[in-house]
Amino acid sequence: MFSRKKIQVLGGLILVLQLFVFTSAQRRSSNPEWLTLDGSPPLVIARGGFSGLFPDSSATAYQFAVGVSVPDLVVWCDVQLSRDGIGICFPNIKLDNSSAIQNVFPNASNSYDVNGVPTNGYFSIDFTFEELSTVPLTQGIYTRSPAFDGAFPIQSVEEVFIQSEPAGFWLNVQHDEFYSQHNLSMRSFILNASQNISISHISSPEVNFLRGLGRPLASTRTKLVLRFLDEDAIEPSTNQTYGSLLTNLSMITTFASGILVPKAYIWPLDATSYLLPHTSLVEDAHRVGLEVFAADFANDVSIAYNYSYNPVAEYGFFIDNGDFSVDGVLSDFPITPSEARDCFAHLGSNASAQAKPLVISHDGASGDFPGCTDEAYAHAIRDGADVIDCPVQMSNDGVPFCLSSVNLLNNTLATQFRTLMSTVDEIQPAPGLFTFSLSWTDIQGLTPVISSPYSDSLLLRNPKFRTAGRIVSLADFLNLAKNSSSLSGVLIKIENAQYLAVNQGMSITDAVSDALDEAGYNSSTATKVMIQSTSSSVLKAMRRDNYELVYEVDETISGALNDTIADIQTFADSVVVDRMSVLPFKAGFLQNMTDVVSQFQAFNLSVYVQVLMNEFSSIPFDAFSDPIVQINTFVNAANVDGVITDFPKTAAAYKRNLCLKMDETPAYMMPAQPGALMSLVGPAPGPTAGPAPAAAPTPLLTVEDVAEPPLPAVVPSSASSPPEATPTSRPTNGQQQVAVSGLLSLLALIVAAALLF
Ligand SMILES: *[C@@H]1O[C@H](CO)[C@@H](O)[C@H](O)[C@H]1NC(C)=O
Ligand SMILES: *[C@@H]1O[C@H](CO)[C@@H](O)[C@H](O)[C@H]1NC(C)=O
Ligand SMILES: *[C@@H]1O[C@H](CO)[C@@H](O)[C@H](O)[C@H]1NC(C)=O
Ligand SMILES: *[C@@H]1O[C@H](CO)[C@@H](O)[C@H](O)[C@H]1NC(C)=O
Ligand SMILES: *[C@@H]1O[C@H](CO)[C@@H](O)[C@H](O)[C@H]1NC(C)=O
Ligand SMILES: *[C@@H]1O[C@H](CO)[C@@H](O)[C@H](O)[C@H]1NC(C)=O
Ligand SMILES: *[C@@H]1O[C@H](CO)[C@@H](O)[C@H](O)[C@H]1NC(C)=O
Ligand SMILES: *[C@@H]1O[C@H](CO)[C@@H](O)[C@H](O)[C@H]1NC(C)=O
Ligand SMILES: *[C@@H]1O[C@H](CO)[C@@H](O)[C@H](O)[C@H]1NC(C)=O
Ligand SMILES: *[C@@H]1O[C@H](CO)[C@@H](O)[C@H](O)[C@H]1NC(C)=O
Ligand SMILES: *[C@@H]1O[C@H](CO)[C@@H](O)[C@H](O)[C@H]1NC(C)=O
Ligand SMILES: *[C@@H]1O[C@H](CO)[C@@H](O)[C@H](O)[C@H]1NC(C)=O
């Protein structure tokens, strides 16, 4: 059963590897800026191969890692021993979680003492290598995709070496004492293996094991590395805690040339998951001549809030902080440290940015601060956004201001005004507290709240600044933008114009035009003004010569008809589409790429895609939970003109990265290939065996979707009276946001994976 699938998948794998074929980009000449022990670039070490995507230690994981990472990649293998003393690569001493051994050898589990702890499970010492080599590997971390399970068997250390031909090969011996107790010698295995294969590093948390290898390996280039566990864990051969071993680094130099430490040894966290200042460990170790490797890097785990969910930024703290660089990083996603090292480190303050994509903020830097506040805008500018955005809302006394939702309950603490809640069918079916029910004075006094779209997956945004900043008026927003020399434009979003005209007696389009005039924006101002709306009648009401008019397509589409685009062209200069309209993905995998971008561009309309976020739950597996790979895919595969993002800092850094300027783009700065992984996976795994219910086809954008009556004349009304519910009125097209949920939540993944077992 496994072998047939294996052949299929192997065929697919070769396909994927061909797509990622990379023309051996020359390693850049040794950069004197590296503050590693010997001044060479820090090593990228792939734990179990590309174990963030494929089953740890599988042939796919190793080959994929080598294919997409830096040319000097070091491949990591956790060694376990079979009953006949053959070394295999497998991540844990127990085989239960990362293989299908229960299916192959039912009832063959056992109980052993592991470092003093009675442990029940499947152990490699109970099986010969021949038996183990029939056992399929599976994804042992249940938040990752099980889609590649069962296709590849357990392999010997030597097989892994021959097949991946790595520049460096790192063996980690987590347990020596355990195997010794069962009369199996890691030492003999290693010494035998070292005659056949070239081992660059051997690490172990056991001091005696490393001491015993020093003399026999003295004539080789193999480096011995002491692996540190938790500070209060006991090192079995010295009876000291790892924390106390750390206090005498010169003692470690007597048997090892380096140490491997959990990343928090270097950048510790406080109790609220913010970074504390770095320790002096790397500098101290370098002073006595020890290399320092940092472990526990993965793109799909929570990281310190300081990194804003950008794993590339995290590596920067370890390799490019001005004080030191670690000598290597151990990662489950080796493409990301490859980018961090070769594309993003040492950018300097004046690395030039390429023209595309236009980086447009979404509610300012709303990934780090409450959206649309003075803080969010100030940071978006500082972070390098090209354009900052203001979704305009109206107070009941006619003051236009910036806030992402017309419903104040969505992003402020406004409980004291609950009595002013009302139901407005044109806006949302549920009762809300609408901006046009409060005065500007009251609104100014509200406390804004950060949005956290992935709080279900426990991925909160910057909790320390959950309620930072103040709501700003459109006038203040425009002045702030005008005073910034780095911005190229402002984007002003106008919604609910018809409702406000008819029911509240306000013209939001006039309010915006007046604010722009008052702030001194005109066709000769350096700062470009973009006016965005889902309503064609709003755009038609604006003066086209002064502004770039941006039509927001408010549904997920698979394409647009030519006459529709020609129609849009009559009132807009560019369009905003959601990311699912460009790169649809399902069950975490990119399906394919639509022609939406090129269709609009053929009519000279620029295309901006929304909304990009950094949280790994929002990123398809094809982009490796890496926000930079996702941006790169939209820019270089889908060819969008701009990205609308909650994290402008990440997109701005992307534009400046050095790999975009290289003659030959390295593999780790290639866009993801939509559909390539899907072709490996076949039908999405699911709990039901029957045919999947046919999903409604994604629609094409038609002229009817776009057409609207012109904006009605303003109907004067008593501004202070609360709005009446008007249940019979027809919602105008584009005025209701359709929530498009294509994103795979972490929870859904966990459930899907659990059902498979
Ligand atoms: C293996 O999976 C079980 C859940 O099925 C979990 O409780 C356990 O911690 C896992 N063990 C390892 C070593 O990951
Ligand atoms: C495994 O053990 C259970 C209970 O001990 C028994 O019912 C079952 O038949 C065994 N399965 C195999 C394949 O031996
Ligand atoms: C290991 O070998 C020793 C001596 O040859 C023997 O006494 C002992 O029982 C063996 N232990 C195991 C777990 O096989
Ligand atoms: C090491 O190799 C020698 C000869 O090649 C062999 O006799 C011995 O059994 C091997 N030991 C192990 C542990 O593989
Ligand atoms: C080393 O290679 C030889 C020849 O390929 C093989 O017979 C031997 O078993 C290998 N030794 C180890 C330890 O893998
Ligand atoms: C470690 O400590 C335990 C108890 O504290 C003691 O029994 C054991 O002999 C010690 N081992 C070594 C190697 O010092
Ligand atoms: C550190 O270890 C070295 C070498 O083992 C030893 O000479 C020295 O006394 C130790 N220093 C302390 C402070 O324990
Ligand atoms: C991390 O962020 C917190 C909160 O903004 C800040 O106080 C701290 O200094 C930051 N840590 C580092 C190392 O930058
Ligand atoms: C900025 O550019 C200038 C001129 O190209 C160069 O001399 C300088 O070193 C650069 N500064 C940084 C920090 O990269
Ligand atoms: C406010 O939030 C709710 C739920 O989070 C959502 O259903 C509603 O559409 C939002 N309203 C607006 C006007 O954005
Ligand atoms: C749509 O317009 C594009 C660009 O002008 C053209 O190449 C294409 O053939 C048109 N498609 C149809 C169906 O007319
Ligand atoms: C993309 O995939 C969808 C669903 O699988 C399919 O309907 C559509 O035709 C595909 N589009 C292209 C351009 O392959």
UniProtKB/TrEMBL annotation:
Signal as UniProt keyword: yes
Keyword Transmembrane attributed: no
Group of enzyme by EC: hydrolase
EC code(s) of this entry: 3.1.4.46
Residues in the signal sequence: 1-25
Domain spans labelled GP-PDE: 42-341, 357-655
Alphabetized UniProt keyword annotations: Glycerol metabolism, Hydrolase, Signal
Protein family (similarity comment): Belongs to the glycerophosphoryl diester phosphodiesterase family.
Protein name: glycerophosphodiester phosphodiesterase
Organism: Spinacia oleracea
